[in-house]
Design brief:
Rossmann fold, alpha/beta, isomerase, 385 residues
Length: 385
């Protein structure tokens, strides 16, 4: 019996690891031991409930106004005891969080193999996204198995000297997750979302909270959104606002009094996925939404200067627009007034997954540990069905 320990701590990690946990749990020859750090508490718990995941270990490290150093030391200390007790054959970490890097480091100290899900993404700027770019690169140095979502991510790893045999192109597990969450007749738990006229209003979903956008950038974004809402009357902006007080103070001070702007607390994963399905377009600084939204056929304007996810930019469904006030306003207005431009982005290919990434990862694990003889098939970029 192979013992595999998925470790994650934030909502974005949990969303993408959840279908993989389910796939691991369905394998009769794998013992799955889930550990969460709770780097994010409430938002993590939402996903655990949604996917009915019951961690064996919960480090519960989140503290008010926590620093990166505090998260790092708490996770490292907590995992030392967990890994010593369980001695898994392999840990699985996801993406680019502090939990991800520190978990890989802790496993390395114990000489335990590390599998990196969503490996190989690069912006090649260590400050954007911060601290995620460095977390992901350091995790890649420590990892033994690299589950790259796309060929582009694999190529990045090969250029950095990772052996080809250790890289598996799987697609992104977030597309697997959306098979669980997106439903045709979904009823929102927040009744305000049920009462929106999605047919006659062009709904713009916005998320912006990244550290590099704190201060003037997020103020620029919000002022541009304010101008859009006032000048283009058939729009309706829905902005689930991160709980960080720096973000909330800026957003509410600029947008709280606009009739066709709805400011919400962060919403559950299934609520967000179904909102994305019904909306007209998305404006975001999130990495995950850059992957999720193309599968739903909606244009994405990225409120950042660089992205570690270039595939959708190349495909045309995502456009990087930065945080300059005039640029944010003009690019959003273009999609709202030029149907050809909107259709061009909405009909671009989906480069991120086919819903089978978790199966490929589990098959790859079995192959590496000698449980089966054939490597898994690799994900190839597909057009939208």
């Amino acid at each position: 019996m192979l013992k595999v320990m998925p470790i994650f701590g934030t909502r974005p990690e949990a969303i993408k690891m959840a279908p993989l946990v389910k796939e691991l749990e369905s394998a009769s020859d794998i013992e799955t031991v889930v550990c969460v750090t709770a780097q994010h508490r409430d938002m993590l718990d939402q996903v655990l409930r949604l996917f009915n995941i019951n961690p064996k270990y919960d480090l519960d490290v989140m503290k008010k106004n926590q620093s990166l150093s505090a998260i790092t030391s708490s996770v490292l200390k907590g995992l030392d005891e967990v890994l010593e007790k369980e001695k898994p054959d392999l840990i699985l970490v996801h993406g680019d969080t502090t939990t991800t890097f520190v978990s890989a480091l802790s496993a390395f100290y114990k000489k335990i193999k590390v599998g990196h899900v969503e490996a190989g993404l690069r912006s090649y700027d260590k400050w954007f996204p911060y601290p995620e770019e460095i977390n992901r690169k350091l995790t890649g140095v420590l990892a033994d198995l690299h589950f790259a979502p796309t060929q582009t991510a694999k190529d990045n790893l090969l250029r950095e000297g990772v052996c080809d045999k250790d890289i598996f192109v799987t697609g992104n597990t977030v597309i697997d997750a959306m098979k669980y969450t997106v439903k045709d007749n979904y009823v929102f738990r927040d009744d305000r979302l049920n009462n929106i006229d999605y047919e006659n209003k062009r709904v713009i979903v916005v998320t912006a909270h990244r550290r590099e956008n704190w201060g003037e950038p997020i103020e620029n974004i919000c002022n541009a959104l304010r101008k859009i809402a006032i000048n283009i009357k058939d729009t309706y902006i829905i902005y689930p606002v991160h709980k960080n007080p720096i973000v909330r103070d800026a957003v509410f001070s600029i947008l709280d009094d606009i009739e066709n702007v709805l400011l919400l607390d962060p919403i559950d994963t299934d609520e967000m996925h179904n909102l994305l399905k019904r909306c007209y377009m998305v404006m975001t600084d999130s990495g995950g939404l850059q992957e999720e939204v193309p599968s739903l056929g909606k244009p994405v304007l990225v409120l950042r200067d660089v992205t570690e996810r270039p595939e959708a930019v190349k495909a045309g469904t995502v456009k990087i627009i930065g945080t300059d006030f005039d640029r944010v306003y003009s690019e959003a207005k273009l999609l709202l007034t030029d149907k050809n431009e909107y259709d061009r982005m909405a009909n671009a290919v989906n480069p991120y997954g086919d819903g089978n990434a978790s199966r490929r990862i589990v098959t790859a694990i079995k192959y590496v540990f000698g449980m089966i003889n054939e490597r898994p098939d690799e994900f190839k970029t597909i057009g939208r069905s």
